[in-house]
């Protein structure tokens, strides 16, 4: 399922999303694939936080597989294992650019793979 809202600016989008969430807006849902193009928008640095992606990692196999793949690819290139960086940040380095960018991109890869898996 997906929900699409439209608006001319951030304020209109926020109102439309609130209406959907509160049930005051009619939502049309349809299953299956569409021929319409899909675009993804991702956050940049500053959006990282300890524990990001952890819930999906626990519950969604496609997300977990993608994050595990990223972790394997990054092994030996980071001083901190990716999953430790994301889920505990015990070393306190997630706020540093080198680590934040890697963590954010890995979570984004996981999100795309998860979304692909659910259609």
How would you describe this protein?
- The chain folds into two domains: 1-31, no CATH class; 54-118, no CATH class.
- Helix 3 packs antiparallel against helix 5.
- By secondary structure, it is an all-alpha fold.
- The chain has helices at 10-22, 54-59, 61-74, 82-87, 97-118.
- It contains five helices and no strands.
- The protein is 51% helix and 0% strand.
- It is globular, with a radius of gyration of 17 Å.
Task: Using the alpha-carbon principal axes, give the shape.
Answer: globular
The helix/strand class is mainly alpha
- Mean pLDDT score: 85
User: What's the β-strand tally?
Assistant: 0
Strand proportion, as a percent range, falls in under 5%
Report the major sheet: none
> What value does the Rg take, in angstroms?
17 Å
Distance between the termini: 8 Å
SSE order, one letter for each helix or strand: HHHHH
Bin the helical content.
40-55%
Number of spatially distinct domains: 2
Q: How many helix segments?
A: 5
List segments where confidence is low: pLDDT < 50 over at least 5 consecutive residues.
Answer: none
In brief, what are we looking at here?
With 119 residues, this protein is mostly helical. The chain is built from five helices and no strands. It has two domains: 31 residues, no CATH class; 65 residues, no CATH class.
Question: Secondary structure elements and their pairing?
Answer:
Blueprint: H1 10-22, H2 54-59, H3 61-74, H4 82-87, H5 97-118
């Amino acid at each position: 399922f997906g929900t699409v809202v439209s608006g001319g600016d951030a304020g209109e989008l926020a109102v439309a999303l609130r209406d959907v969430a509160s049930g005051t807006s009619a939502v049309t849902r349809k299953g299956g694939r569409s021929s319409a193009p899909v675009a993804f928008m991702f956050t940049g640095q500053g959006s990282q936080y300890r524990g990001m992606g952890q819930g999906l990692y626990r519950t969604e196999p496609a997300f977990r597989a993608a994050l595990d793949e990223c972790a394997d690819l990054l092994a030996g290139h980071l001083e901190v294992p990716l999953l430790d960086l994301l889920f505990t940040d015990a070393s306190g380095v997630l706020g540093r650019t080198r680590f934040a960018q890697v963590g954010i991109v890995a979570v984004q890869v996981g999100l795309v793979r998860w979304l692909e898996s659910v259609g």
